[in-house]
Amino acid sequence: MSILTNRLKINFHIDAIDRDFVFIRFKRDKNGKWWGAEELDCIIGEDYKAMSVGYAQYAYAMFEKKSNDTYALLQKLRTDPKFASVSAIEVKPQAVYTGNDECICEVTLARLLINSLGSSRSKFKHLHFSNLTGALLKVPPLTNKLYDAIGVAEITLSRDESQKNEFLLKVSVASYRKKVSILKEYKGTAELKKFLKDLSMCSIVAQEL
C-alpha cells in the first residue's frame, strides 16, 4: 500500500540549465517589496521578454540564452531609466546553496524553471499565463459567453521546512466574478453604487500595480 503526496524531489541538470538559460538578479538601492514592482512588469514585457520572473529577498529573471547576449542584456538594463534604482548582475544556477552569493539555487531556481513552462505568447489561448508575481497563474480562455465567474489556478513552490532539500508544489484555484455579473445581480438596488465604487477602487489599484 502506498500514498502519493505533492512533495517534489527535484534533480537539477545544472550544466544543461547553464547552457540554455541566463539568470539575472535584481537588487534595489533601498529595501522594498517586489510584489507588483514595475520593473518586473517591464522585464517580462516586449522590451526584454524574460521567460519567467520570481522574487524573495531579491528579484530574478530568466532568459533564453540563444536569443540574448548576456553582456548586451546587462548593459541595456543598467542604462534603462526604468531600472535606475535597481542593480542587475548575472547569477549562475546551482542546485544547493554553498555560500556563493552570486548564484540562483534551490526553490528559487525551481520556481523560475517551472514558471517558464507556460508561454504568455503562445498561439494556443488555453496556454496563456501571467507570472508577474513570481507565481504561475493559469487563466482559461475568455470567450464572448457571459459566464458569471472566471477560474484562475495559481501554482507556487515552497520549501518543506520539516525536510531537507524537499519542496511542496501548491496549486490553489480561485473564482472571480465578472463585473457584468455583479451589475446584473444588483441592478436597480441601493447596493449597486457601493459595488461600483469598490470596483473602481480595485481598478485604480490594478493600474498602479
Task: Describe the 3D structure.
By secondary structure, the chain is an alpha+beta fold. It is about 30% helix and about 30% strand. The chain is built from six helices and ten strands. The strands form two sheets. Strands 1-10-9-8-7 form a five-stranded antiparallel beta sheet. A five-stranded mixed beta sheet has the order 3-4-2-5-6. α5 packs antiparallel against α6 (about 190-209). The radius of gyration is 20 Å and the shape is globular. The chain starts with 6 loop residues before the first strand and ends with a helix.
Describe the secondary structure blueprint for this structure:
Blueprint: E1 7-8, H1 14-20, E2 21-28, H2 38-43, E3 52-55, E4 59-64, H3 70-79, E5 86-94, E6 103-105, H4 106-115, E7 129-130, E8 136-138, E9 149-159, E10 167-177, H5 179-186, H6 191-208
Parallel strand pairs: 5-6
Antiparallel strand pairs: 1-10, 2-4, 2-5, 3-4, 7-8, 8-9, 9-10
Helix pairs in contact: 5-6
Low-confidence stretches: 201-209
How much strand content do the residues show?
Answer: 25-35%
The level of helicity is 25-40%
Could you tell me the radius of gyration in angstroms?
A: 20 Å
Shape: globular
Spatial separation of the terminal alpha carbons: 49 Å
* Biggest sheet architecture: 5 strands, antiparallel
Q: Find the structural class using helix and strand composition.
A: alpha+beta
Mean pLDDT: 76
Order of helices and strands: EHEHEEHEEHEEEEHH
- Give me the count of strands: 10
